[in-house]
Design brief:
single chain; about 210 residues; alpha+beta; five-stranded antiparallel beta sheet; 5 strands; cell membrane; transmembrane; tight junction; Claudin
Length: about 210
């Protein structure tokens, strides 16, 4: 795969991962009502996310309410919020930096070595963004798993399990890190070596005779 095609593929994958991470952060389905065990199917399904909680009626009506207080939230929700915000910010800057550094764009420096370095910097930002998304989703999933299996008086059918937003987040983290890794393969060392060989090529040995 050529360098330009590899960069374009990595950029598109990372961009898709960033959009998916944005959707995962906004979705309220980070955890949902469980129907495991001797469950009685109720007319209301509960969903909770980082920013709001929703109740879906069997008639199709959905009512959502934003979380009232930031400081009263559980620690894992606050941490996941912060990680997702950092992830989206890193990904946003990665989008801008990568556009400047890609070979297929005419933005920024004309020096291929400098552009390769900028592309690598954009790839690093994407990788960090994917890691933050992965940490946020995994932390939340760990807490959901702990609350589901711990010994408590709450019946199984009244507990919560993984919501669809968690799977969207895992997919977003994988795409973002994959795209960032492809962008990081834009090694400027090879191009620098080629330029040095070109500049150090021996001069012409032709002589003029009188």
């Amino acid at each position: 795969m050529g360098g330009g095609l590899r960069e374009l593929s990595g950029y598109l994958a990372a961009l898709g991962g960033w959009v998916a991470a944005l959707a995962a952060a906004a979705l309220p389905q980070w955890r949902q009502s469980s129907y495991a065990g001797d469950a009685i199917i109720t007319a209301v399904g509960l969903h909770e996310g980082l920013w709001m909680s929703c109740a879906a009626q069997s008639t199709g009506q959905v009512q959502c309410r934003l979380h009232d207080s930031l400081l009263s939230l559980d620690v894992h929700i606050q941490t996941s919020r912060a990680l997702m915000v950092i992830s989206l910010l890193l990904g946003f800057f990665g989008i801008i930096v990568s556009v400047v550094g890609m070979k297929c764009t005419k933005v920024g420096e004309e020096d291929p070595v400098t552009k390769s370095r900028i592309a690598v910097a954009g790839g690093v930002l994407f990788v960090l963004s994917g890691l933050c998304t992965l940490a946020a989703v995994s932390l939340y999933a760990t807490q959901v798993t702990y609350e589901f299996f711990r010994e408590s008086a709450v019946p199984v059918n009244a507990r919560y399990e993984f919501g669809s937003a968690l799977f969207v987040g895992w997919g977003a983290a994988s795409l973002t890190m994959l795209g960032g890794s492809l962008l990081c393969c834009s090694c400027p060392a090879k191009e620098r070596r080629a330029q040095q060989c070109y500049r150090q090529s021996p001069p012409s040995t032709a002589r003029e005779y009188v």
